[in-house]
Recover the amino acids of this structure.
């Protein structure tokens, strides 16, 4: 399923994709279920090494999340996949494992405090750019434009809050669970995003013309 969705996204020219695969909260699941998922992740990352589509399309694979929470065998498979695709720059697939938005911000705060303690950073110099530079270190993630939430869940589940909420990303909710996700669902999500962008541009033009925000809300 995941491979098909990635193929569809590439067809549409989507260069950056993040798959939220396992949250920090998921560690509360049954231990056997967690181990089964970790074994599946290990198999998928190992398969990347010989996946012709990855190398033909120059897709860089990266993990997003707290690596200290993962077992060594899974972490080794992840690092091997990252190293094998490190020089690729046509597409970027970010796999969020052991990830939580609040956990990410906590780690960034610790890093900032450590730099202040070591007098490498002044508290007065801390701004949004400095904070962002301490999040998802080394991944160079762009702002989130669109979140697709499957399974009829009406929540974004603590997903990349700095890049998503701070960028006012669009959110598309759909009924199918991930295994049943179809290409038409992806196309509908992209269409919703496109419509939102067009409306936003109209609103900005009306505001630039001197109209109030109340006037702009009724643009058709």
């Amino acid at each position: 399923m995941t491979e098909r969705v990635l193929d569809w996204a590439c067809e549409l020219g989507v260069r950056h994709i993040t798959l939220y695969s396992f949250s920090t909260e998921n560690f509360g699941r049954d231990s056997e279920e967690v181990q089964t998922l970790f074994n599946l992740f290990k198999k998928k990352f190992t398969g990347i090494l010989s996946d012709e589509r990855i190398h033909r399309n120059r897709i860089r694979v990266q993990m997003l999340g707290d690596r200290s929470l993962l077992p060594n065998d899974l972490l080794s498979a992840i690092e091997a996949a990252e190293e094998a695709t490190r020089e690729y720059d046509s597409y970027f697939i970010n796999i969020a494992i052991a990830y939580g938005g609040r956990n990410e911000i906590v780690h960034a705060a610790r890093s900032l405090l450590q730099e202040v303690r070591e007098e490498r950073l002044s508290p007065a110099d801390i701004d949004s750019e400095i904070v962002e530079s301490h999040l998802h270190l080394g991944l160079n993630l762009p702002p989130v434009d669109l979140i697709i939430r499957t399974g009829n869940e009406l929540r974004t589940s603590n997903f990349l809050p700095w890049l998503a909420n701070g960028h006012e990303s669009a959110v598309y909710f759909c009924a199918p669970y991930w295994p049943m996700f179809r290409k038409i669902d992806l196309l509908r999500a992209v269409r919703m995003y496109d419509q939102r962008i067009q409306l936003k541009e109209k609103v900005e033009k009306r505001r630039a013309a001197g109209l109030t925000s109340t006037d702009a809300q009724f643009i058709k």
